[in-house]
User: What shape does this take?
Amino acid sequence: MRFMLRSKIHRATVTAVNIDYVGSITIDPDLLDAADMLEFEQVHVLNLSNGERFVTYIMNGTKGSGEVVINGAAAHKAAPGDKIIVLSFGLMDEESVVLHSPRLVLVDEANRIVGDSA
Assistant: This one.
């Protein structure tokens, strides 16, 4: 078995941070659907603006809002306007790896989908 990249939301813009929340990243369900990510799924978040990296889980935001909110302790690792990459991973057997291609979702400044590999 290999731990492989399943999907990625590339260059999303952080719309808000909320330190007074129990944790997670809140993401517009339209982006989650495009990236084949689920609420409560573990994700890695890479902050292109400051180099921070952290692991958290997804919470559904408001559909169509474009929101990407960093919550809880991770809110110290981002600021509104930061560019981030959100990555999901999964275990795959050797046969699946050969055929696998991760789903890539590209977004604009308002977190609207401008391209994907689906």
User: Anything to note?
Assistant: Helices lie at 29-35, 94-99. Strands lie at 2-13, 16-18, 24-27, 42-47, 53-60, 68-71, 83-92, 103-107, 113-116. Residues 29-35 form the longest helix (7 residues). The two ends are 24 Å apart (CA to CA).
